Amino acid sequence: MPSPDQVSVTAGALLGLLNERSMTGWELVEEAWSRVGNFWTIQRSQAYRELAQLERRGFAEALPAEGRGRRRYRITDSGRQAYLDWLERSPGEENVRVPFLLTVAFADDVPEERFHELLDDQRRRHEDRLTRYEAWREELASDTSDRGRGRLATLALGIHYERAALAWLDELPSYLAGTRDAPGRDAEH
């Protein structure tokens, strides 16, 4: 947990985005998703809670309301310093969550036909994401700014991850072959 003068990972990331330009909470979530989508997510409600906290702490300020009551936020000087301090800290341990891995862990309890449907669904999702990431890479290829290079580097991890996930999904049936009737299983299965 950050000390009272530090910001959380989510707040630091939001400050980093606000350091680039003023944005609404909606725009912040969309921008975060476009940059690090599946590796770091933020819910809209979380973004708005963090923005309110950042405003209370004097790290961000709300600009006058626009149409439909939308509010843009901008970073303050103290927010910029909090952001720079956040960048200096160690990011900490990774926390990768793969919900399908839980299904795999209990694969023996999933009817075989259903398991293959789930496997096909996972393959489709990763193929779609890989296609989307590769298209984004083409769009970003001409951006040679510091931020553009950072976005490309982040996107490269996404591309490598999706390729690795697809390779693992292709190998998965061989890991599970023959386990459904393996010796030592309960007679009830």
Q: How would you summarize this macromolecular structure in one to three sentences?
A:
Residues 96-172 form the Transcription regulator PadR C-terminal domain. The chain is built from seven helices and three strands.
Describe the structure.
The structure is a single chain. The chain has helices spanning 9-20, 25-36, 44-56, 77-88, 99-105, 112-140, 146-176; strands spanning 23-24, 60-62, 72-75. The chain is mainly alpha-helical. The protein folds into two domains: 9-88, Winged helix-like DNA-binding domain superfamily/Winged helix DNA-binding domain (Arc Repressor Mutant, subunit A, Orthogonal Bundle); 99-176. It has a three-stranded antiparallel beta sheet. Helix 1 (9-20) packs across helix 4 (77-88) and helix 6 (112-140) packs antiparallel against helix 7. The longest helix has 31 residues, at 146-176. The termini are far apart. The model is unreliable at 180-189 (pLDDT under 50).
Strands in their spatial order, largest beta sheet: 1-3-2
Q: Quick check: average pLDDT?
A: 87
- Cα-atom Rg, whole angstroms? 22 Å
Number of strands: 3
Low-pLDDT regions: 180-189
Q: Mind telling me the CATH superfamily name of the largest domain?
A: Winged helix-like DNA-binding domain superfamily/Winged helix DNA-binding domain
Helix-strand pattern? HEHHEEHHHH
What is the architecture of the largest domain at the second tier of CATH?
Orthogonal Bundle
Summarize the biggest pleated sheet: 3 strands, antiparallel
Strand content: under 5%
The portion of residues assigned to helices is 55-70%
Count of domain modules? 2
Classify the fold: give the CATH topology of the largest domain: Arc Repressor Mutant, subunit A
Count of helix runs = 7
Report how far the terminal alpha carbons are from each other: 44 Å
